[in-house]
Amino acid sequence: MLEVNDLNVYYGAIHALKGISFHLEEGEIVALIGSNGAGKSSTLNTISGLLRSRTGEIKFQGENISETPPDEIVRRGIIQVPEGRRIFAPLTVTENLEMGAYIHNDRVQIEQDMEEMFNRFPRLRERRKQTGGTLSGGEQQMLAIARGLMARPKLLLLDEPSMGLAPLLVEQIFEIIQDINKRGTSILLVEQNAQMALSIADRGYVLETGKIILEDSADALLENPLVINAYLGG
Ligand code: ATP
């Protein structure tokens, strides 16, 4: 479904991605793990068209999207839920969800999608008239994911969904991610929380300073001594 081949991304003189290649099959959850600054967010931003690679190619459903503008990438079905829960703070929960559906104009279906989000995230229904900025961290993360789902993605790019959340909420968010995947959305998951990410992923890649240093099934990575020592607290 997604083929990423030889990404080289620079910020001025900083060489952030040094030949990143990986793939994701339809229906999979694939985890990209690595510490701060490894290049995880840059990888997602390059796939969604916000950053450009100097070399290589990104193919989605067989088509080269390396030069495709970000809004067209969204229309093709790749939706990024950004790090830090960047919801629209001054807008209400309902308005945030409507923004997520901006590429659609089938009003009835949008209403149905919104109802589905409220069924899936009951807290959002309770708070639907509140502005995004007044929600707790966990609620904002749920809103960010729900807003992404309103676009009806084929592939969801999730950037650090567990960041800043209490352990119980982290578990809840990961159950939601698994459920989204079971209903047919493929997921590329970027996480510093390697344990949680690999516990729900099919496969994973380990990034270090802009390079993929390891790839394997999630089960094998969870038992890999390098991963255990560097990312699972020994
Ligand atoms: P984090 O979890 O902290 O976001 P990451 O693995 O997602 O880490 P990136 O944010 O992709 O890593 O950063 C990769 C490298 O690129 C780092 O060395 C970082 O300092 C650098 N970098 C990222 N964004 C910029 C920027 N806007 N300007 C300059 N350098 C940047």
Automatic annotation (TrEMBL):
Gene3D superfamilies with a match to the protein in the record: P-loop containing nucleotide triphosphate hydrolases (3.40.50.300)
SUPFAM superfamilies: P-loop containing nucleoside triphosphate hydrolases
Keywords of the record: Amino-acid transport, ATP-binding, Nucleotide-binding, Transport
Molecular-function annotations in GO: ATP binding; ATP hydrolysis activity; branched-chain amino acid transmembrane transporter activity
Keyword Thylakoid set for record: no
Keyword Ion transport: no
Database matches in InterPro entries: AAA+_ATPase (IPR003593), ABC_branched_ATPase_LivF/BraG (IPR030660), ABC_transporter-like_ATP-bd (IPR003439), ABC_transporter-like_CS (IPR017871), BCAA_Transport_ATP-bd_LivF (IPR052156), P-loop_NTPase (IPR027417)
ABC transporter domain mapped to chain residues: 2-234
Any single GO BP term: L-amino acid transport
SMART domains: AAA
Recorded family membership: Belongs to the ABC transporter superfamily.
Protein name, UniProt field: Amino acid ABC transporter ATPase
